[in-house]
Design a protein that fits this description.
Elements (H helix, E strand, L loop, with lengths): L16 H20 L22 E5 L5 E3 L2 E3 L4 H8 L11 E6 L5 H13 L3 E4 L5
Parallel strand pairs: 1-4, 4-5
Antiparallel strand pairs: 1-2, 2-3
């Protein structure tokens, strides 16, 4: 019987095989779940910072911080905005490239008012451009 020192060696090696298994399982999980995500959003064509839009082909809807709606430079109530837009814009299918609205809303306008105008454009198949300040 040996009662002297016993040698208990602690291994200082790190085994990466279990870590790579976990990484591959996470990779597979995120690849599968990311394909199931669908977004229900409106398609917006945002202007480029240095580009120039042709203002002759589109109407401008402006919304101020105090929730006043303007169609080009004329003040208009929110309730008659859709009817007025449909009067001015050509009929659907006639010249689709001319059916566009440029939405200009100030920074502090509540989101629901912006969505209201976007919904009008979506229902009537009118292209929508959200105007932003270039950086």
């Amino acid at each position: 019987m040996k009662l002297g020192k016993t040698r208990n060696k602690v291994s200082t090696e790190f085994n990466m095989s279990s870590m790579t298994d976990i990484v591959f399982l996470l990779l597979i999980f995120f690849m599968i779940t990311s394909t199931m995500v669908t977004t229900n959003a409106l398609d917006l064509v945002l202007p480029k910072g240095k580009g120039k839009t042709d203002s002759n082909k589109s109407l401008t809807v402006n919304i101020t911080n105090d929730l006043k709606f303007f169609l080009d430079k004329d003040e208009i109530s929110k309730e008659v905005l859709e009817a007025r837009l449909l009067e001015i814009l050509p009929a659907e299918g006639v010249e689709d490239n001319k059916r566009a609205i440029v939405l200009r809303a100030e920074e502090k306008v509540p989101y629901e008012n912006i969505i209201y105008v976007m919904d009008i454009a979506n229902r009537n198949k009118i292209k929508m451009v959200a105007a932003v300040n270039p950086k």
